[in-house]
Specification:
The chain is an alpha+beta fold. The protein is built from seven helices and 16 strands.
Length: about 350
């Protein structure tokens, strides 16, 4: 059908470039449809990593099936929406591109699927990285009757500038560590990068290089080397001067020109950096880069500043290193939560 503002029009075909809708088709965003004779697939869209997460729980166990069905459908529709189960807290976590993005899906679940949900406080998806090279030389020994565990790894950890990747480099020479154990050493390092020790968020922009090590004919095993590399990373991590990265959003604020100064002042208080400030007729358009963690509740604040006449939009730009005072505050909060468990 062809979509009009107030009606649907049945059509038999659509020319190139036209936007149409189809009913009863099982598909996901980014799928390509053909007549079955053409073997083509259009290039998929770029999907950015989510920047905010929210714990969501249905208020009644009776609607569990509907809850799962809704999340499954929403993920097919929207590739920027991610869902996972946090085994540590027992909560379902939805992640997306902002506070409003997640609120819309909570409301759609209530309206379309009749599922009432309770939500936790939105959580920003921080990252961790290293800023300095550090060596490690770690030996893992465990003996408790029967076959023990033994493994030793030697190497270094270093930052990868302007990268989100985690690289593992095997520079082993000889057979001090049998080749069959190397994949498990890599697995241990990558597992360690899933949760940094500063605030428990993933580590990125890091290269792990293994240069030497040792194995035992009886006690060495795949698990022993996996644990050895995991502990080696954790031991050397703090010597790498780790830092926390926060998502920075590209914001555009539109408001009548008489509120321009108040809007800019509000963005400055949120540690925003003003990139552009232009006037379109009687409206000021302000572009700024602002840390996402400081943007909670901004829609209410903007309405108050502009007497309901201002509006804003924002999109993810990049992750940037937080200031030391923010890092210390985040680290203390994380340690208090761990201590309370």
């Amino acid at each position: 059908v062809r979509m009009h503002p107030n009606e649907l029009e049945d059509i038999a075909m659509a020319p190139a470039g036209e936007i149409v809708a189809m009913f009863g088709v099982e598909c996901a965003s980014g799928d390509t449809f053909t007549d079955g004779k053409q073997k083509v697939a259009l290039e998929t869209m770029h999907v950015a990593d989510p920047v905010m997460s929210l714990a969501i729980t249905p208020t009644s166990r009776d609607v569990g099936t509907q809850f799962s069905k809704a999340l499954s459908r929403f993920q097919r529709e929207d590739p920027t929406l991610r869902v996972h189960f946090d085994s540590e807290t027992g909560e379902t976590i939805i992640s997306g591109m902002g506070e409003l993005h997640l609120e819309i899906y909570v409301e759609r679940m209530r309206r379309e699927y009749k599922v009432e949900c309770t939500t936790g406080k939105p959580r920003v998806n921080f990252r961790e990285t290293v800023t300095k090279r550090a060596k490690f030389d770690y030996t893992h020994k465990k003996q408790s009757g029967g076959q023990g565990q033994f493994g030793r790894v030697v190497g270094y950890i270093e930052p990868i500038p302007d990268s989100k990747e985690v690289e593992f480099v095997n520079n082993l020479v000889g057979n001090n560590i049998p080749p069959g154990f190397v994949p498990h050493i890599e697995k241990g390092f990558r597992e360690a990068c899933n949760a940094g020790s500063l605030i428990g968020h993933p580590v990125e922009g890091v290269r792990v290089v293994i240069e030497d090590g040792a194995a035992h004919a009886v006690d060495s095993s795949e698990m022993a080397f996996k644990l050895c590399s995991l502990y080696a990373f954790r031991q050397a991590y703090h010597e790498c001067q780790p830092r926390i990265l926060e998502p920075v959003m590209r914001c555009e604020v539109r408001a009548p020109t008489e509120y321009q100064g108040d809007v800019i002042g509000g963005l400055n208080r949120k540690k925003g950096v003003i990139n552009d400030n232009v006037q379109e007729l009687d409206e000021a358009v302000i572009e700024a880069m602002v840390p996402l963690n400081n943007m909670f509740g901004y829609s209410t604040e903007l309405r108050s500043i502009t007497q309901g006449k201002g509006e804003f939009s924002m999109e993810y730009a990049h992750h940037a290193i937080v200031s030391m005072d923010v890092q210390q505050e985040l680290t203390k909060t994380y340690e208090r939560k761990r201590g309370g468990k």
